[in-house]
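By way of example, we now present a protein record of this kind:
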Amino acid sequence: YSVLKPYLDFDEKLENLEKFENNIKLRGLDIELPMLITKWQHYKSVKDDIQKLEKERIRITEEVSSVEASSDADKIKSLKFAGVNVREALKTLKMVLSELEEQLYPQVLQLPNEIAENFKDELIYSKDVQEADVEDHIEVGNKLDLLEYISPRLYFLKGAAAVFELAMSNKMANLFINNNFIQFSNPDFTRNSIVECLKLKDIQSLLSLDIIRDDEELDRLHLNGGASVFPFCCYHSKSITNVSALPLQYATKGRHYAESQLPGLYGVWQNTSVQIFIGTTKETINEHLSSTVKLLTDFYATFEIPLRVIYVQPNNLSNCEKMRISFQTFSSFHKQYFELGNLSLYGDYISKRMRMYYSENRVDKFIHVISGTVLKIPPLLASLLEYKRDSTVNNSLLNKDNPE
């Protein structure tokens, strides 16, 4: 497969060093920035030296051609000797550059995205529900014969709960399709090169498989599930989209795999989810973010469960995120909030790594991206079980929507 070489924007980050250092501080990251800057400057110096030698090599080649016509043997010999020295120097410097890239690229790719300027430390939406007797949702589900929970890795939904899983994933997917999103069917596995390139630390694969290719090179595949941002990024990697085709709006329903330490259905390792992807311009990205947040808030507000929509604090963002908005419900039994879905603003952070462009007036620009796992079925089901604990929960789930 073809090589993907990320675009490194370290120079752009260094244009406002104070702002960048504050970004790192707010995120609570431990990055030795002065040492990294020194390495970067050395890397750029080597690249400049290579460019100078390339120009010198071309000059010598052209001069040899012109001197050969005059049959000046001594001059030709001198130029050819100089040409050999330049080629040897180029060979050495290119080896040095390759070693520097191997050391530097992983470190630069770990640098965080800028925190969004419109980030606010406040609630976006909040709704309370009157509490009844506190009881664990697993116990409620067992009493109503709606689920069999063995461990975070192994559980079964039964009866109305199984119908609910199908119905809600269909309903959420159709909500976006009716708002001009294109439905996708994504693969569950992602190549190691893509995972390493994007450095999305918040997305942890549940399983890795090593495959020996025909050329006997080792390739690793990561199990993330179709409800992941990775497949969408791969689809547009190393491509240019005409600005008239924007916004790119995709939705998919599928499996989401991730380890978790949360209790019960709030922390199962495999769940049915809905993932969306929006690719657009810098000028319109905030408009799309606001309209999508409203769409999701209206959806979750229809359920008789506690709900809050918040901005995630910078120290809880992954390196790739400019902003994340979290849709959460409160568990009276566990006395804490659990996430039902999320929406992340990435800006052009992903596009620079995946070379995702759009063309406007013959100028190629990086696509700005919004993506998120907007619905996770098990946490929503857990909250409904906790706040509707009598036998009517069966009818409530069955009548909420019918799977298509």
About this structure: The mean pLDDT is 87.
